[in-house]
Amino acid sequence: MRFLTTFVLILGFTTALAQAEIAVVVNPANANAVSTDDLNRLFLGRASSFADGSKATPLNLAEGQAAREEFDSKVLNRSSAQLKAYWSKLVFTGKGTPPKELADDAAVKAAVAGDSTAIGYISSGSVDGSVKVVATF
């Protein structure tokens, strides 16, 4: 019985870690509110500006990053393979360019902190005062 209890606790902890919360971040100077629909349009290349008309520069984490997979799934409602096919088609037809990819949370955070037009996402545990959280998933 003790083994079973320990196993269940470990399984629950592992599941919680696998589904870490994602924070969508912008530069602290950016006053725009961002909805899930806005994020879809920005990160799928269907929009290039925030609600107030100012330029928006979406930044993706590199493929294989856990936060990227969570963002793709929870926000864009697509798998990595679906997004790769989506962007391949747009690039091939000359109708779009995917968001720039950065290596990790620290790189996204630094890019967003240094660019008032940037919007990205990181693991919520990586958030600090250099960026402003506009949504969590």
TrEMBL record:
Where does the secretion signal sit in this chain?
Answer: 1-18
Which top-level group of life is the source organism from?
A: Bacteria
Keywords, comma-separated and alphabetical: Signal
Name of the featured protein? Phosphate ABC transporter substrate-binding protein
Q: Which organism is it from?
A: Rheinheimera muenzenbergensis
